[in-house]
Specification:
With 180 residues, the chain is mainly β. The protein has one domain: Jelly Rolls (Sandwich), CATH 2.60.120.10. 6% of the residues lie in helices and 41% in strands. The two termini are 30 Å apart.
């Protein structure tokens, strides 16, 4: 696997090796041992799978401490723009964000550490994304930030996304109780 650092400390783009032949292809998409060899400490305890219509925006979600989650995200069908936002108040990159295009063809994965928000915009119908997390889901610690918060100035590339009620009503970062 090839690991690429980003401008956000700890956020990594992972490109798994793909072995192709006349039958198709094979790729190891998760191996704790391979990640450790690459200097990455991540142990998954839950695997999630989402399916979205084109234009669906799953806005900036995160899980507060003491059960903060790291995520290993990949697109298994279709195409998404994957957004990662630094929510660590003492970080030099606080409120900065990056976008990575994940597709079923490029097979890239993004490691989103604890302390970061994560959002996904589906660029095609029937897009599917899976993500492994290192901490179980805790509804009482589940949070979201307003997708169009001017303090973040995220260029989503869409003006009228399909949003859940939770995302429509999410607070601005300044009004949230993010505790990183």
């Amino acid at each position: 696997m090839q690991v690429t650092k980003t401008k956000l400390d700890g956020v990594l783009i992972i490109e798994p090796k793909v072995h192709k032949d006349d039958r198709g292809w094979y790729s190891e998409i998760y191996s704790e041992r391979s990640l450790e060899k690459a200097g990455i400490s991540f142990r998954a305890v839950q695997d999630n799978h989402i399916k979205s219509k084109k234009g669906t925006l799953r806005a900036i979600h995160f899980q507060n401490s003491p059960k903060a989650q790291a995520k290993l995200v990949r697109c298994t069908k279709g195409k998404v723009n994957d957004f990662i936002v630094d929510l660590r108040k003492t970080s030099p990159t606080f409120k900065q964000w990056i976008m990575v295009e994940l597709t079923e063809d490029n097979k890239l994965q993004v490691l989103v550490p604890e302390g970061f928000g994560h959002g996904v915009l589906a660029l095609e119908d029937d897009t599917e994304v899976t993500y492994k997390v290192n901490e179980l889901y805790h509804p009482d610690l589940d949070r979201a930030i307003c997708w169009n918060d001017p303090a973040l100035a995220i260029d989503w590339g869409v003006s009228a996304p399909i949003l859940s009620e939770k995302d429509k009503n999410a607070p601005l970062l300044k009004d949230s109780d993010v505790n990183y």
